[in-house]
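Data availability (excerpt). The following record was deposited with the supplementary files.
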Amino acid sequence: MNQTSFWHRRRVLLTGHTGFKGSWLLLWLQQLGAQVWGYALHPEPEPNLFRQLSTQKPPGACWHHHIGDLADREALCQCVQQCQPELVLHLAAQPLVRRSYTDPLGTWATNVQGSLNLLEALKPLQHPCAVVMVTTDKVYENQEWAYGYREPDRLGGHDPYSASKAAAEIAIASWRSSFCGSAPHQTPHLRIATARAGNVIGGGDWAADRIVPDAMRALAQGEPIAVRNPMATRPWQHVLEPLGGYLRLAEALLTDPAPPCEAFNFGPQLESNRPVRELIDTILSHWPGQWIDQSDSSAPHEAGLLHLQIDKAHHWLGWQPRWDYATTIDRTVGWYRAVHEGASALECCLADLEAYTP
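Predicted structure:
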């Protein structure tokens, strides 16, 4: 899985490289020896993982930093033409549920139209190119089922974020059906799949309105953790889990005789589906503190129960999660606590990568 021999010197376009997941993936790709072109908005204010990691590059690393908006088609096309990518990992998005309530139009524009702008920018390529378009586990029409969603299940979304990502799945599938092929109006070079993952945790996430970053900030400041939805159940997974899935999917798209141009779920094993309350209690067993229930019935809607079936990724790609729930929490809290006590964010990320990869 994710062999250095495959990725060495490969030209990779990574959108969203200044974000949480994008920063981790940028570091991983550098470790694999890829030539990376990053395209993203300016990193958000401090603390910011991208800034923490970009102060030092591993020996032999090659990457290019482009600041741009997915809405800027000209800048996006210029970046694609400079990179001439063999592989594209599209992570750029408006990724926050609660922010989508305050900026629904921006969320839809970025997550739907921005994804289509990228595909249009890739259309002129004259060589094979694997494209992994990352969406979310929230693309499914949530029925609060006790069992996991599979890739063919109905798409939908109550909040603007979830709905925009479901719409992106539909738009990407339509674009692939319309413009990938051998007809005069089509391109034979693009191999496009979507990847659905969510509730990703791990060191370096500083976003607002996410339970783990909120908890880490509170603990570092010696304050109680405010929990707004303690009974909501989520499939908690370390950030390296889905990133490994994206890399494996990209490899398969470029090398398999019958590339898997479909949607794939990437999630943890069933035992990692835990209520927020249990997650917080586990965190506090590693970093002592307190939490308070701040449930608010008038708050914007968020799903209460959600998890994914991941057997398709296992059978088609040979991918499966490596870290169980206990390891995930241990590595996550350990990262934040070490950095809080003065350790280098880069060294902590590299230690996690070394522990995760065989």
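Summary of structural features: The chain has a mean pLDDT of 92.
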